[in-house]
From TrEMBL:
Provenance organism: Streptomyces endocoffeicus
InterPro entries per UniProt: Methyltransf_25, SAM-dependent_MTases_sf
Record-annotated membrane-spanning stretches: none
Keywords associated with the record: Methyltransferase, S-adenosyl-L-methionine, Transferase
Name of the protein described by the UniProt record: Class I SAM-dependent methyltransferase
Annotated region described as Disordered, given as residue ranges: 190-215
Amino acid sequence: MTTKPHDISPDTTPGEFWDNFYSAEDRVWSGRPNAALVREVTGLTPGHALDLGCGEGADAIWLAQRGWRVTAVDVSQVALDRGAGHAASEGVGDRIEWQPHDLSVSFPAGTFDLVSTYFLHSWLELPRERILRSAAGAVAPGGVLLITGHAGFPSWVTDPDPDIHFPTPEEVLAGLELANGEWDVLVSEAHEEKTTDPEGKPSTRTDNTVKVRRR
């Protein structure tokens, strides 16, 4: 999220918006897994993972390559189809189930050993805290919830939108409303990540990560 698009119709559904977003290019993201996923999941015993907002599937594919069974969820069917194609080409298509969900309306059934979501931000209205509470509710005993989000605008943005608020790790934890005595907080921190500006020059952006384990 940087500059807000000016051509969003009030009648546009989340599925339409994100299908258009992904259809604009043959590949939107790098195809590499998120750095926080690699950092925080390496060493966990593989089980069943839920990837919320999976996009083109890089995280789901990385997990599947390391022995996880993955339910990958996105509101964009274009992104899901693209992810399924990438997974098949990587030989892990049979380890990933791709499910379309508008998370403000529906949520995948079941419980999971890992529930992860990265950059669950949208220019459209999104009940982020409610969705993240649903994510916590889907974590099996002994399982992990991993949330990474933007903590601010990239360094190259000189005129940030004052109406956009990026929650701190503390705000994310508070919004989860975790029951006392049932969870352990493993990580709650902000961290700087490398990125590039629109001209391809090196830049940075601060993100935050919250990682909790259900007892």
